[in-house]
Amino acid sequence: MPHSAHEAVNTYFTEAARIIDLHEELYPVLTTPYRELAVQVPVRLDDGSLLVTRGYRVQHNGARGPYKGGIRYHPDAGLDEVRALASLMTWKTALVNVPFGGAKGGVEIDPKMLSKAEMQRLTRRFTGAIHHILGIYRDIPAPDVNTNAQVMAWMMDAYSSVHGYTPAAVTGKPLDLGGAPGREAATGRGCVYVLGAHCRQEGIDLSSQRVVVQGFGNVGSWLSHELHALGAKVVAVSDVSGGVFSEHGLDIPALRSHADEGQPLVDAPGVEILTNDELLATRCDVLVPAALGEVITEDNAEAVQASIVLEAANHPVTPHGDKLLGDRGVVVIPDILANAGGVAGSYFEWTQNIQQFTWKEERFNQELEDLMTTAYAATRAAADSYGCTLRRAAFALGIERVAAAARLRGYV
Ligand code: GLU
Question: Which atom of ligand 1 is least distant from the CA of 89?
Answer without folding.
Answer: 10
